[in-house]
């Protein structure tokens, strides 16, 4: 094993390591089992988290996922990358025919976990973003937000949401009698969901 191997020296109960599970054929159940055997070592737990998030997306059962699922796996690990972050992540790891192996995914995923590279937006970040989007062009006041305006903004500004993402977002908003959205209440609800 190379000295820079992220998982070197992490044994399970029978003395074999996570590296052996990876080398033995990329069976994620073996990786998860190997990572849970040591118990006390933090890297065991983190590798298990990655394996458990990666596994459901391994549709071919060959220890690899489609590059289009990388963002989903990261989000299942409770990370919060933007699409730009996901694109950069994918760019930095080896791929084969549009697929990413667990072996290549794991070191970068562990780095993301260790350094909290993709933190969730804070309530103040979201408030600032909404105020910026809704700022009146002729004053510092904030314009009311309607459902139509929200859909237009979220589908054309910044990193646009797709139809499914918009539908999910709209399911969490409340429109008052004037047709306006209480975006501050939406942010509070969103922050509660993120905390869970």
UniProtKB/TrEMBL annotation:
InterPro entries: CALM/Myosin/TropC-like, EF-hand-dom_pair. Signal peptide: none annotated. SUPFAM superfamilies: EF-hand (SSF47473). GO terms for cellular component: myosin II complex. Residues 1-22 have a biased composition (Acidic residues). Keywords: Repeat. It comes from the Eukaryota. Residues 23-35 have a biased composition (Low complexity). Coiled coil: none annotated. Residues 1-43 are annotated as: Disordered. The keyword rRNA-binding does not apply. The keyword Repeat applies. PANTHER family: CALMODULIN LIKE 3 (PTHR23048:SF0), MYOSIN LIGHT CHAIN 1, 3 (PTHR23048). This is Calmodulin. It comes from Plectus sambesii. The lineage of its organism: Eukaryota, Metazoa, Ecdysozoa, Nematoda, Chromadorea.
């Amino acid at each position: 094993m190379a000295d820079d191997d992220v998982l070197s020296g992490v044994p399970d109960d029978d003395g074999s390591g996570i590296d052996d599970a990876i080398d033995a054929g990329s069976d994620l159940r073996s990786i998860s089992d190997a990572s849970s055997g040591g118990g006390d070592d933090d890297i065991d737990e983190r590798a298990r988290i990655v394996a458990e998030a990666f596994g459901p997306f391994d549709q071919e059962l060959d220890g690899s996922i489609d590059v289009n699922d990388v963002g989903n796996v990261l989000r299942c690990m409770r990370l919060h990358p933007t699409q730009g972050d996901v694109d950069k992540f994918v760019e930095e790891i080896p791929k084969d025919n549009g697929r990413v192996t667990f072996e290549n995914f794991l070191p970068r995923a562990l780095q993301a976990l260790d350094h909290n590279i993709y933190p969730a937006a804070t309530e103040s970040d979201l408030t600032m973003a909404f105020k910026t989007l809704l700022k009146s062009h002729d004053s510092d006041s904030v314009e009311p937000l309607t459902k139509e305006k929200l859909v237009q903004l979220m589908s054309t500004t910044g990193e646009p949401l797709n139809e499914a993402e918009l539908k999910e977002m709209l399911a969490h908003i409340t429109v008052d009698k004037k047709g306006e959205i209480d975006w501050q209440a939406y942010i509070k609800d969103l922050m509660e969901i993120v905390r869970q």
